[in-house]
Amino acid sequence: MGQHRRASTGGVLSAARGRPVRQRMGIVVGVSRDRPRLHAFVSAGHPERPLVLRVDHWDALARARGPIARVDWLCGDHGTSEEEELVLDVDATGIHVTRRFYGCTSDLKRGGLIRSQQQ
To answer: Around 79, how many Cα atoms within 13 Å sit in the side-chain half-sphere?
Structure first.
């Protein structure tokens, strides 16, 4: 994907259900310019294991023309006190995944950034 986007062929393979049942998780299996044999796509941060994302995140990443931000958990969703956002980007070095955690205000709106994790 990324530079790979135009040079990749693959499809999402459902891996499991996400935390809420409505979230389908999956990996992408395919071929790319850098790896012309069938393989699971990985993140640049963890090339040793397949990258598991929600299927709708994979779909959004395939259509994206640049970095995208997708909310995994809204403030108050399933009782959470943090909003969780996934930032996905693809470049010549691979798929970059950053999780951002935001505090929630008393009216369940996004507050300030608490922490960020590269995955």
So the answer is: 2
Number of domains in the chain: 1
Question: Measured between alpha carbons, how far apart are the two ends of the chain, in Å?
Answer: 17
Size of the chain, expressed as the number of residues it contains: 119
Of 58, 61, 46, 63, which Cα lies nearest the Cα of 15? 58
Q: What is the pLDDT of residues 58-105, one digit of tens each?
A: 999 989 999 999 998 999 988 889 999 999 999 888 899 999 999 999
3-class SS at 55?
helix
pTM for the model stands at: 0.78
Q: What is the pLDDT of residue 97?
A: 96
- The CA-atom distances, in angstroms, between 75 and each of 14, 37, 63, 78, 107 are 27, 41, 27, 9, 9
Containing structural domain, residue 57: 3-118
* Amino acid, res. 112: G
